[in-house]
Amino acid sequence: MKLDCAGKILDLSIPRVMGILNITPDSFYDGGRYERVDAALKQAERMVLDGADILDVGGESTRPGAKAISESEELDRIVPVIEQLTHQFDVPVSIDTSKPAVMRAAVQAGAGLINDVCALQLEGALTTAVAAPVPVCLMHMQGDPRSMQSAPQYGDVVQEVKRFLDERVDACVEAGIDRRRLLLDPGFGFGKTLNHNLQLLKDLSRFTEPGLPLLVGVSRKSMLGGIIAEMQGQEQAAPLEQRLYAGIGAAVMAAMQGARILRVHDVRATKEALAPLCATMMGIT
Ligand code: 9MG
After folding, report:
1. Ligand 1: which atom is nearest the Cα of residue 188?
2. Looking at ligand 1, which atom is closest to the CA of residue 56?
3. What are the structural domains, with CATH classification, of the chain?
């Protein structure tokens, strides 16, 4: 299981850590702090030193209720950062976007993977991905980031998310994308209640059935705040700063069910938590 990310190889024989680099003033965790390119590079350097296997650069926040930004603003934010990152670091760089023009510019600037929370459903995204010689992560979302958390509904969430991803894989293959370029992601927190997220986490291994690499992002998400509150009998969801350990627990759970990329803010902690699993998978004695 090796992904060719624009010439940089990501070996997925063990779970890998994707460091989140948000170049957004309104990002839910580190937003506002890394707006300038040099600040972004410093943050990237820290994540690489901490063991990040890939960096995911995003210019537009996808957190619930986040404000949409224009294409030109997104390009302004991400292109200079991706150019520098791809020159300075050996790890692949991924672009977190749903806009075709941003995908094209990012790949031109050196990005080696497209991470699309809209699973290439925006007009022009599929044809852009066909032409871009990089892997693509297809994520499930019910609704859109502006409205997705207002009463999401499913009959059987696992079955419906699986069916959606199967259909998107079929659409991609039909459009001309090699299956081996695709990754899948059930989209934790994207149009899902706490209960939906827990059902997905419990049955995550089912998403490996298509034989494509599974990417999972739970880091710092509100579902963790809800889980902690539920388990500790508290009324209020645990705040961001208290979600680290639950996030690591969920990441390890995901990896043990076959997830091969964990998208996280806390690279070092996640890397170390995954080390026992990775060591056993590598047969280290
Ligand atoms: C951009 N982004 C935010 N959360 C994410 C998740 O869970 N998966 C992927 N692929 N991207 C995400």
Report:
1. 7
2. 1
3. 11-220+246-280 (3.20.20.20)
Nearest to 152 by CA among 96, 227, 250, 223: 223
CB atoms within 10 A of CB 100: 22
Q: What is the C-alpha R_g of the chain? A: 18
62 lines ligand 1 (CB under 6 A): yes
The best mutation among 200, 263, 265, 270 to test binding of ligand 1, ranked by most ligand atoms within 8 Å of the C-beta, falls on 263
Q: What pLDDT digit, counting tens, does each position of 93-146 carry? A: 999 999 999 999 999 999 999 999 999 999 999 999 999 999 999 999 998 877
Long-range contacts of 268-273 (CB under 8 A, 24+ apart): 268/50, 268/51, 269/244, 270/17, 270/219, 271/17, 271/50, 271/51, 271/52, 273/248
284 C-alpha to ligand 1 centroid (Å): 31
According to the model, what pLDDT value does residue 26 have? 59
